[in-house]
Design goal:
- With about 250 residues, the protein is α+β, with helices and mostly antiparallel strands.
- It contains eleven helices and five strands; from the N terminus they run ααααββαβαααααββα.
- It folds into two domains: about 5-75, no CATH class; about 80-249, Glutaredoxin (3-Layer(aba) Sandwich), CATH 3.40.30.10.
- It has a five-stranded mixed β-sheet with strand order 1-3-2-4-5, sandwiched between helices.
C-alpha cells in the first residue's frame, strides 16, 4: 500500500474511533491532512450530522442550565416561596407553586397577566406568588411602591385589585393617577401615597432585587415553577403543559 493510501485508510479508520482513543498530535502531517479531508468530505455529504451535533450541544446546555437553576432555587427556597411579604393568591394549599417577578410597565407582563390568571383559575390547585420587581424606570418603581403600600396598609384583596389595575394601566404613573386608583378602590389614598417611600416598602423592593440577583434574573416576566426558572413570556398552552409536567416529577 502506498503512503497516501495508508494515510487514507488510517483516516477512514479514525472516523469510527472514539476521540480519546488516538492522539492527533502523533500523526504525520500527511495522515493529519488525510483525516481532515475525510472529515470534511463526510460532513459535506452528510450535512444533517452538523445539525444533529448542534441539537445535542443545545440540549446539553439546556440540561446544564436547568440543573443550575434548580440548585439556585433550592438555595433560595425560603425567600422565593415564603418571604413573608409577597402577595400570595390562587389556592394557598395548592400542590404547585408558581412565582412571578413582574414589572407593571413590562409589555410581556401585561400580555401574560390574563393567561396566568386563567391558568390559576382553571387549574384550581396552583399557589400563585407575586414578586414586585421594578426594573423599567421611575414609573415602574412608583407603581410597585404603590402596590406594596396598598398591601401593607389594606391587605391582600385590595392589593390584588390594585395589581390588576396597574398591570392594565396605559397612562403615566403620576401621583394624580395613583390617587385616583386608590380612591376608586375605596382606599385611604393619602395614607397609601405617604407610605410609598417608607422603610418597610424600601425593604421589600430591596429584598426582591437581591433575590433576583441571586437567581440571575434580569428581565420580566420571570417565573419560578417549583424548582424551574422560566424566563420570559410563555403562552397559556405552554404554561399548562409545564404545570402538568411539574406534577409528574
Amino acid at each position: 500500500m502506498t503512503r497516501s493510501l495508508t494515510a487514507m485508510a488510517l483516516a477512514l479508520g479514525l472516523l469510527s474511533t472514539p476521540a480519546q482513543a488516538f492522539d492527533l498530535t502523533a500523526m504525520t502531517d500527511a495522515e493529519r491532512q488525510a483525516f481532515r479531508d475525510e472529515v470534511r468530505s463526510y460532513l459535506l455529504e452528510n450535512p444533517d450530522v452538523i445539525m444533529e451535533a448542534i441539537a445535542v450541544l443545545e440540549q446539553r446546555q439546556a440540561d446544564q442550565q436547568a440543573r443550575g437553576d434548580a440548585d439556585m432555587v433550592q438555595l433560595n427556597a425560603k425567600d422565593i416561596f415564603d418571604d413573608g411579604h409577597s402577595w400570595v393568591g390562587g389556592n394557598p394549599d395548592g400542590d404547585i407553586t408558581l412565582v412571578e417577578f413582574i414589572d407593571y410597565r413590562c409589555g410581556y407582563c401585561r400580555k401574560a397577566h390574563d393567561e396566568v390568571q386563567s391558568l390559576v383559575d382553571t387549574d384550581g390547585k396552583i399557589r400563585l406568588i407575586m414578586k414586585e420587581f421594578p426594573i423599567l424606570g421611575e414609573e415602574s418603581v412608583a407603581a410597585s411602591r404603590f402596590a406594596i403600600s396598598v398591601q401593607q396598609i389594606a391587605g391582600a384583596d385590595p392589593y390584588k385589585r390594585v395589581h390588576d389595575r396597574l398591570i392594565a394601566f396605559k397612562g403615566n404613573m403620576t401621583e394624580e393617577a395613583l390617587t385616583r386608583i386608590a380612591t376608586e378602590e375605596g382606599l385611604d389614598a393619602p395614607a397609601i401615597l405617604a407610605r410609598m417611600n417608607a422603610p418597610e416598602v424600601n425593604a421589600v423592593i430591596a429584598a426582591n432585587h437581591s433575590l433576583a440577583g441571586r437567581l440571575q434574573i434580569n428581565g420580566t416576566p420571570t417565573f419560578v415553577l417549583e424548582n424551574s426558572l422560566l424566563r420570559g413570556y410563555l403562552p397559556l398552552e405552554a404554561m399548562t403543559k409545564l404545570v402538568a409536567d411539574a406534577r409528574l416529577k
